Amino acid sequence: MIQDQRQQEVGFGIALRAAILAEGKILLLLRSRPSKGETGYWELPGGRMNLGECYEEAVKREVYEETGLKISVVKPLTVYDSKRDKDTQVIGIIFLCALDASNPKVQLSSEHLDSMWVSLEDLGTIKVIPGLSREAQLWEL
């Protein structure tokens, strides 16, 4: 909570996302934020990095909070810049991640309504957050 307030005061944050690859598919989560008009979009698991946290800890924490899955960070895939409004900027980093267990069962947090595993080829046919399909085309998996 205090962390979010500090980021809002500064107007800057770092967002980390996980492209969890398993059997040729990545995990997407369906957003549930009607107050922000963001319901209905699929996204990669992840969130903001906390002050003092290393990127690997942050990605693992966010994925576990949102899905109950334990992962390993493999490598960074891409960096993006998101200007949410005139006073807020977020630098995002998407990491390729691997599951720490086989046959994982996703346990969703209240932030999401559903989950699905999708191939990169099918990503363009799904209502994903703006820019994700374009970014995914650049990944070398």
UniProtKB/TrEMBL annotation:
Alphabetized SUPFAM superfamilies for the sequence: Nudix
Protein name (database record): 8-oxo-dGTP diphosphatase
Pfam families documented for this protein: NUDIX
Superkingdom of source: Bacteria
Alphabetical UniProt keywords: Hydrolase
Entry's family note: Belongs to the Nudix hydrolase family.
Gene3D superfamilies assigned: Nucleoside Triphosphate Pyrophosphohydrolase
PROSITE patterns attached to this UniProt entry: NUDIX, NUDIX_BOX
InterPro entries with a match to the protein in the record: Nudix_hydrolase (IPR020476), NUDIX_hydrolase-like_dom_sf (IPR015797), NUDIX_hydrolase_CS (IPR020084), NUDIX_hydrolase_dom (IPR000086)
An annotated Gene Ontology molecular function: hydrolase activity
UniProt xrefs under CDD domains: NUDIX_MutT_Nudt1
Record domain Nudix hydrolase: where: 7-141
